[in-house]
Task: structure prediction
Amino acid sequence: MTTHELEMVTQVWPRMAPLLFVPQNEHDYDHLVAMLDTLIDVVGEAEDHPLASLMDIISVLVEKYEDEHVPELI
Result:
């Protein structure tokens, strides 16, 4: 990351932090799932959609939480 990129991220991160975070509890998890549901409705399967990568990132965060905190069904 260049210094310029870091400066840009520093400027936008305060607005992004409430939307992009590692879930620490069930409330955080539920919040991310709700955001993911909305993104799925908006983005669908359009890989070229501007929010497609955000949807991918949130889905990874949701999956990680589920792997660590949600018991598997047998």
